[in-house]
Amino acid sequence: MVVVSKQLFDAVCRDAHCSLMTHPWNESCIKACPGLYKDAVIGSAKFYSIIYLAQILMRGKKMMKKEQWIKMGEYYVRSTMLGFMVTSVGPNISCLIRKMLGDQFYSSTYLFIPFAVCGLFIYLEPPSRRGLVINLFCNLLIEYYIKVLERAGYPTVTRTHQTLMFMLGSSLLFYLMRLEGDKKERTPLFWLFTPEKVKRKTTESESPCPHKGKCEKYVAKGFATYFGVGLGISLARLIIPKISTPIKAISSIRSKHFKLAMFFGSYIGIYRAVVCYLCRKQGFDSALYALPAGYAAGISFLFNPSLGLSIASLTAAFKLYSTILYEKKILPSNIPLPELLYCFCQGTLFNARIVDPDACPSYVFNLMKSCSNGRSEHVFKSFSEVIRHAI
Q: Is there a contact between 28 and 352 (Cβ–Cβ < 8 Å)?
């Protein structure tokens, strides 16, 4: 489907009934709500179960403590509430605004403003997770704008460009993470790996490397652990949606399902190997070693190339750098800039899913489809029919 411009929307959709635009499963705004709310609960619970399973796998031994499971359970409920509120309230606001504007839709009031307002539900997430969600949506927004620019004739971001972006982002990110190592509270950041603190040189220290034991074992353990995590995530994505037919799900495993595992394993293995090499060669540890180590580790991106991932490495590095800017009072702390940015991102992306699907990131498709338990697909199909019949 072609992008629906403001002019086309105003000409075709302004006087369309909301049952065609926001809730095609029922003509009544009120009667459409129970089914929407029910599916929003079910869909959000399913969607976040996979995300939290991945986080549990990545936390590893930290999940041995009971309080960690309690905290994870609380966070899961809060995230599910976020998904439910955004999914269910957004269409309600769209219908309400339409009534207030004389039973008319406008390009900005159809989905952008309703879901931007729903962005305020980000406060349902605890502060430690809020930044992670905001960072994700910023990545998606950048990915969307890159695709829009490519469509307009600007140079395409090739796989080589994406790889170099990821290598540079990993280099800066690991360096800034090691600089933060001595802080009591690190900046909340959901990344593949948290590097060890810089080891201070002492006379009692036998090895300059930031770990205990032999380097070979340290590198191999990192590769094996994260290979397992990547494989677990891939298999969870494959098996959980087909849990009713487990034999069929297992028999559908292919070599492509090992790409994420190879990416995770090699990414951590190369990073650790380079840091250990530099520590032993120089005789001491330094945060600067993370620059070449992160850059070299970034070549593992070729196992699992993704524009979103390459963008994420750079924005994660900027997030850590922004912490320094806040500490130096360069950025104002009395204005909720990250939350306001999230509102804009959510409104833009959810609107793009319907009116500009060709450029919208695939994650947004999956997010809306999963959290609405498929109802967003009904909305898109009905909206497409309205456009198709008009042109």
A: no
